[in-house]
Design a protein that fits this description.
331 residues, alpha/beta, Rossmann fold, four-stranded mixed beta sheet, globular
């Protein structure tokens, strides 16, 4: 049975990630630091994940080291997680390509933050997340503290089943440090959703001196091309896998999620497409405008990559005449 607790977005995400994490490789960076700090503290006090073990936490020398350790740990067959933001995420990009290319189910939790350009800013936008679109990670967005917990769970479940690494993100400070009273889904409930066959397949694929294999070769274009294309089917299955876990999670909690969620008038003529903490504000604005007779709505993006036209057009009203896309990135 779920219990109500008061916490911020970082704690909600840390709580969800702890359940499915065996190794956490960490390095602090604002505003994500408290996720790693909480996981470290819980592990030190013997808090157990769903496998009945405390998480092994390793602090590295930088975010580049943390990402490299995630890669190595995943290759060794351990479910591995890290937490970062902004410049820290940029340092992880080389290893993200390797993790995704090798179909390893790691999860990165990111409190999305501005990048240092003409000046540094520690506050939230989506520049860091948008910089990793080409890495092959699935990108899953939470819009408030409750979603940070719920979609945090779903990111891990989907990564294991899909064999695709996930980057789960939410707005830095605006969500990471916002304190709300949320419903906490117990570990024993989400454990039932775990695909144990997929988990065992991941473990069986781990590097093992008893079964030596060669990985990380250099290839000519003909073979390299085929290897890259062979991964397509895994990405094509991701939207359905995420949607499946959202449906199963709703049966436990009553909270319904979809890869794209619509809110507003069924016959809306003007629709906003948005992602992140702004969605809650837009919902209140839509309530106000609909009360005045306006036909408006919002499509809230949860699964940004791989982008699914099927799930997007499933929720977009057929009456729409104008669409405004809001994004928090300097393109």
């Amino acid at each position: 049975m779920a219990i109500m607790k008061t916490m911020d977005g970082n704690e909600a995400t840390a709580l969800a990630s702890y359940a499915f994490t065996e190794v956490a490789t960490i390095f602090p960076i604002t505003p994500s630091s408290t996720m790693a700090e909480l996981v470290d503290e819980w592990a030190a006090h013997g808090k157990k994940n769903i496998f009945g073990q405390p998480v092994k936490v390793v602090e590295m020398q930088s975010e580049a080291g943390a990402a490299g350790a995630v890669h190595g740990s995943l290759q060794a067959g351990a479910l591995t997680t890290t937490y970062t933001a902004s410049q820290g995420l940029l340092l992880m990009i080389p290893n993200m390509y390797k993790i995704a290319g090798e179909l390893l189910p790691g999860v990165f939790h990111v409190s999305a933050r501005a990048l240092a350009t003409h000046a540094l800013s520690i506050f939230g936008d989506h520049q860091d997340v948008m910089s990793v679109r080409a890495t092959g990670f699935a990108l899953l967005s939470s819009h408030n503290v409750q979603e940070a917990l719920d979609l945090g769970y779903i990111a891990h479940l989907a990564a294991i089943k899909a064999r695709i690494p996930f980057l789960h993100f939410f707005d830095g400070f605006r969500t990471s440090h916002e304190i709300q009273k949320i419903e906490v889904t117990p570990y024993e409930d989400v454990e039932k959703l775990l695909d144990k066959d997929a988990l065992q397949a991941f473990r069986n694929n781990a590097l093992n001196p008893e079964r030596p294999v060669l990985r990380g070769t250099a290839q000519n274009p003909d073979i390299y091309f085929q290897g890259r294309e062979a991964a397509n089917r895994f990405y094509q299955e991701v939207p359905d896998i995420v949607a499946h876990y959202m449906e199963e999670y709703a049966k436990i909690t009553g909270r319904k999620y979809e890869p794209f969620q619509y809110y507003g008038a069924e016959d809306a003529e003007r629709v906003i497409v948005a992602m992140g903490s702004v969605c809650d504000t837009i919902e209140e604005t839509i309530d106000y405008l609909m009360a005045k007779g306006e036909k408006v709505g919002v499509v809230k993006v949860h699964l940004y990559r791989p982008f699914s036209e099927k799930y997007f057009f499933r929720v977009l009203p057929k009456t729409v005449q104008k669409i405004a896309v809001l994004e928090r990135t300097k393109e």
